[in-house]
Design goal:
By secondary structure, the chain is of the alpha+beta class. The protein contains six helices and five strands. The protein binds zinc ion (2 copies).
């Protein structure tokens, strides 16, 4: 399953949003957006920083965080906080979606599977909450890690 054209569209949308909000479009900033929209593993700020260094050796981690904060404020990036791990970032879609998390390699992937609407309806009725969104994560071993665990 490839998301190439969708990734390109997300990249263009985010760059336009930054422009409209009068944020500077530095080469580093554009590179961060490119990495975020084309990465399918939900990178952390540290991972983004490591990937930028070969192209922009003077980029600081603070620059990466600053860009991530701007994008989060604009609602173009979802922050996924974990108690035992770094915060991970998702710019490929701002629509809530179910995540699959590998407990071994820490890869986080998106799924197109939607949660059962009956579940959300039941939660509403039981709690009286007006449900605004959800965060659903499944933990396990990705196919690569299952292959490696036997050897
Ligand atoms: Zn894995
Ligand atoms: Zn995601």
């Amino acid at each position: 399953m490839t998301h190439r054209s969708a990734d390109e569209r997300r990249y263009t949308t985010i760059v336009e949003r930054l422009k409209d909000a009068d944020h500077r479009l530095t080469p580093q900033r554009l590179a961060i957006i490119e990495l975020l929209t084309h990465a399918d593993y939900h990178p952390s700020a540290q991972q983004l920083h490591q990937q930028l260094l070969p192209r922009f050796p003077s980029t600081s981690l603070a620059t990466v965080y600053k860009t991530l904060h701007i994008l989060t404020d604009l609602g173009e990036v979802l922050e996924l906080g974990f108690s035992d791990d770094d915060t991970r970032y998702d710019a490929r879609t701002t629509v809530p979606h179910i995540h699959l998390i590998c407990v071994q390699c820490r890869r986080i992937i998106d799924t197109d599977i939607q949660p059962d609407p009956h579940l959300i309806e039941q939660l509403k009725q039981h709690s009286g909450y007006r449900i605004l969104g959800h965060r659903i994560e499944f933990y396990g071993l990705c196919p690569d890690c299952q292959d490696n665990s036997g050897t």
